[in-house]
Design brief:
The structure is a single chain. The chain has one domain. It is built from 7 helices and 4 strands. The chain has a two-stranded antiparallel sheet with strand order 1-2. The chain has a two-stranded antiparallel ribbon with strand order 3-4. By secondary structure, the protein is mainly alpha-helical.
């Protein structure tokens, strides 16, 4: 499970860094050329997705990533409902950490500025102690529920333990990223973004 966690954490980290380069201080593609539409999704969707603004960038990026996640089924892995549920559970975990990594690594945000007032696209949604969007916990909860459904369908009970064992390294890697990679990345970011 450690190798799986490390792989998906590296995917989350690379996408977060890519988005930081693309968006900079303007999160949720606020100043990019993509289309943007404010919408009022049902409450359960808002809790899960966080934002009330849909952008072309985020729509197509997530479609690509969803397809990318399913690529093993086109290279020899047998498709089963249990495999699909497990894959969706992993998807929900790593996208949660990808989103959080964007905030802690972004030089314009960081952990200190990660709060509803600074994050306009999540600001209307519930937060836990003004430090973490409730949507993160909802996504992890839904991922766990999908694993429980897989067990009910016929997967072994070890799948639930494997799921939690997969999440724990994500937490550890995130803390290490905050402590070790963030300071180096900030120096790199400011050095390369200086106007010459």
């Amino acid at each position: 499970m450690l190798i799986i966690s490390l792989f998906w954490f590296c995917v989350a980290l690379s996408i977060a860094l890519f988005e930081i380069e693309l968006e900079g201080r303007y999160g949720w593609a606020e100043k990019s050329a993509t289309w943007s539409r404010k919408f009022m999704p049902p409450k359960i969707f808002r809790l899960f997705s966080g934002a009330r603004v849909l952008t072309g960038y985020h729509l197509f990026l997530n479609i690509f990533l969803f397809l990318f996640m399913h690529s093993p089924f086109f290279f020899g892995t047998e498709f089963t409902i249990i495999a699909e549920l497990r894959l969706l559970a992993i998807y929900l975990v790593w996208t949660t950490f990808w989103d959080f990594l964007w905030f802690i690594l972004n030089p314009y945000y960081g952990w200190k500025k990660f709060a509803p007032k600074a994050v306009w696209w999540f600001g209307e949604e519930p937060w836990l102690m003004n430090k973490l969007p409730v949507k993160y916990f909802v996504q992890i909860g839904i991922s766990t529920f999908l694993v429980i459904i897989a067990i009910y369908i016929g997967a072994t009970n070890n799948l639930l333990m494997d799921h939690f064992v997969m999440i724990m390294p994500f937490i550890l890697f995130t803390v290490l990223t905050h402590l070790l990679i963030r300071p180096v990345f900030h120096k790199y970011y400011w050095a390369l973004h200086q106007k010459t």
